[in-house]
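Supplementary Text 2. Reproducibility record for the structural model of the 93-residue chain.

All settings were left at their defaults, and a single model was retained for analysis rather than an ensemble. We include the record here because the model underlies the residue-level annotations in Supplementary Table 4.
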Amino acid sequence: MSNHEQAITALAVSDDAKALLFALAQENQTLQQQLEELMQKPLSTNEACKFLGCGRKKFWQLSKADPSFPKPIQFGNTNHYRVSELRQYRDKQ
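Retained model, structure tokens:
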């Protein structure tokens, strides 16, 4: 039994409330796993532009001028970028 499950079980609330809390805890865990997976998903250059809220020209300028700009991952002839790295870069700006 996890710490969350133990804490919920120890609460002095109705069984219905405990069932709801268990369901919410499970949903939260599922959403956290999905978020972690999405953070590793590579985005195309167009998707990365949208994520950063800039056009392709500004995106290109940033990638050339700023050494802290995320490095691309090449798939064939196209560049992709990790969401986690783009978010980290965006949050520093």
